[in-house]
Write a structure and sequence with these properties.
The chain is an alpha+beta fold. The protein contains three helices and seven strands.
Length: 136
């Protein structure tokens, strides 16, 4: 499990809000790798964001389990399609134990959204201090 603090919560909220402004992005969220919701955009309610955060964590766990098929390369992005809508997940950085996700509308330019996630990840990482909460 992870515990997190943000250096500047307003800054991270602003970055997530900017991501949601991209054409076709319904909502965005930042998730700790154990599924704890860190922040979410206005495009999704808190309850739904928490459920989606847990789902994102599970999806990443499945991807990590498949790594051995790819010579244990780092998992950097995951994409799920739901009848034209997409859920895109990008690692914020392994050292930060966090993920950023965007939920899109059908017809969104997935390349643009994916690039925005990758570009935003280092800025999100700079705002997070996510520590390991594993039982010792």
């Amino acid at each position: 499990m992870t515990a997190f603090t943000t250096q500047n919560p307003e800054q991270m909220s602003w970055m997530i809000a900017d991501l949601q402004k991209l054409q076709g992005v319904r909502s965005a969220l930042v998730v700790a790798s154990d599924g704890m919701l860190i922040t979410h955009s206005d495009g999704i309610g808190r309850d739904m964001a928490e459920r989606l955060a847990a789902s994102v964590s599970g999806m990443v766990a499945l991807g990590m389990a498949a790594r051995e098929c790819f010579d244990n390369l780092a998992l950097s992005q995951i994409a799920y399609e739901f009848e034209g809508s997409m859920l895109l997940v990008t690692s914020v950085g392994q050292a930060r134990n966090a993920l950023i996700a965007a939920l899109t509308e059908p017809g969104a330019d997935i390349g643009v959204v994916s690039n925005a996630l990758v570009s935003l990840a280092p800025s999100i990482a700079n705002q997070l201090d996510v520590a390991d909460r594993s039982v010792r």
